[in-house]
Amino acid sequence: MIGSLLYLNASRPDIMFSIFFCARFQADPKESHLTAVKRIFRYLLGTQSLGIWYPRHITSFEIIEFSYFDSTGCKVDRRSTLGTCQLIG
After folding, report:
1. CB 50 within 8 A of CB 14
2. Could you give the CA distance from residue 31 to residue 55 in angstroms, rounded to a whole number?
3. Which top-rank group of organisms is this from (predicted)?
4. pLDDT tens-digit profile of 58-75?
5. pTM of the model
6. Cα separation of 78 and 28, whole Å?
């Protein structure tokens, strides 16, 4: 289930954080992780019209990127977290 969700990351970045958070627990999954993955699928079912559309012919565009870093910000294992946002066009 996680593998099929990882495939959707290219066109649905809104679910990226949830997918990667669930993927961290693939070695020892629990019932709560299955519930979270099912919730992601229900979200996708309700938002089928959303996604990124890449036009075929782009003459020029501008890329702007923002990043965020927080050391020991994850409450699960106290590891550092990093977030990025890319704006195209």
Report:
1. yes
2. 40
3. Eukaryota
4. 677 777 888 887 776 667
5. 0.54
6. 19
